[in-house]
Specification:
This protein is 58% helix and 6% strand. With 539 residues, it is mainly α. GO terms for molecular function: DNA binding; DNA-binding transcription factor activity, RNA polymerase II-specific; zinc ion binding.
Amino acid sequence: MWHRVTDKNFSKASLAWRKKPRRWAPKSRQGCKTCKIRRVKCDLARPSCLKCSSTGRACDGYNDATQHQAGEFHHILQTIGSLMIMPMTGSVQAEALCFFQNTSIEHINAYRPSQSWRNTLMYFVQTVPAVRHAALAVASVHRKYLDRDYSIGASRSQYLKDWLSDTPPLLHYNRAIQLLLNQESGQDIGAIAITLLVCYLFVCFDQLAGDDVRAINHLSQGVKLLSHVDRTMLRNKDNYNEAIYSGYSTLISQVRRQIDRLDMQAVQMSVIWDPVSLQKSFTSQCLNSDTVFHSLDEAADHLQILSTQIMRLRWCTEKDQKIFTAEQMQPSLSILHNIVLGQLETWSSLFEKMLQHCSSSEVNSMAVSFPRLQYLIAWILLNTRGSGREMDYDHFLPRFQQSIKLASHVVATQKPYPESRKATFTPECGIIPILYIIGVKCRHPAVRRQAVTLLRQRPIREASWESTIAARVVERIIGIEEGGAGEEGMVQSMEQIPMWRRVEDVSWFNSASGRYAVTINLTYTLCGGEETYSESLMV
């Protein structure tokens, strides 16, 4: 028999706690499914909670928490509101962020503008601390870059040293890195997306600061991270419902497009660069007569893949032409050459067919002129190979003339900085390498000089290409091939430049020469010759 308490005071004291309000505490939503159903406190042990195991029950895991958090994130992505925006810590940050939104983003996506991508980027800048600090670092160094005095040819190397003594850009840069390292889970899809965005902004930052090596390293890390994204998403697919998983896939694909494009364009700056996504894209996106381009952006993506394949094929061909003639070229390269040429011709046909359904304003826009220009140059490069190719360029004068006309239209339609002499910047390769190829490979005196004029029309930086540097190199090549500098030494026709005098291979790097000058260390070989020549040019 149980002992019955009869003391009334004791009984009242034991029940007094019921009359006091319970101390508030946030309700935990992190328990396992089984404990939630049983309405008991979960001990949150992993992978199975001890409370379930000790009572012989099967623990159903913690998937609900992941889905709940992912659901909130998915909802936030769809309903961006002013209350979500992180507060500014001062007027300087507010001004820098405004500059990033109004100027930097437009410059970064100058050739492939995408409002969807800009909205996504700004959303993360406004809501994620790591991305915000990376954007503030880009905005700070971008403004410094635009404010340089180009009239006296300031050196990028010296500028970099001066910039390193300025703390705000570095503080934001380092803070972004610190915040990335402090992320709770590096395997979460959202965390991966943030890391990729910061990596992309760091590439822009390093290029503006003149550190091309670090920019390539950041690009390489971004490409490497992307190679693991598919496996990570597949591994975590069961943790999200279909709608949430689809939202994450869309987000990752936007970042992937930007980094993949930079990855493929890097072949225009480095002979040894091997784009990771090239072979997969080239084999999986073969064109045929039944293919339909649904947008200019889709057509541009296909052309980018073909242009990159052409540059890689050209580098391989250059290695073999020291041993083989064009007819004796390695069979695998010859077969690949014919495949790429067929794909390029198919692309042109499909592109022109798509334009028949576009408005006149779209047809006359840079979004159409630039792909046409890229196609012409790609076609010329693909159809000139072997030991005698420097003379073969003369056969394509009509295409060079058409190219310079399109290039003039592209330069004229580019949105400049408010002051005409201010520079523009984009991490993508665009008009500069094309004008450089025209100036170096087209020996028609008027056409190549028009290319130089366009390069000097306004300072532009595209990845590691600078228009003023490229113009100076082209001018020197013209001087070498035409036997003199200036108008007095100008030849009247291409035929006046013999094969032995034509420059075949060119490379250069820049070095500082005082505070406001840069030295171009130029190396080149003449067609058919084995001797390498080196010169230093002042800018």
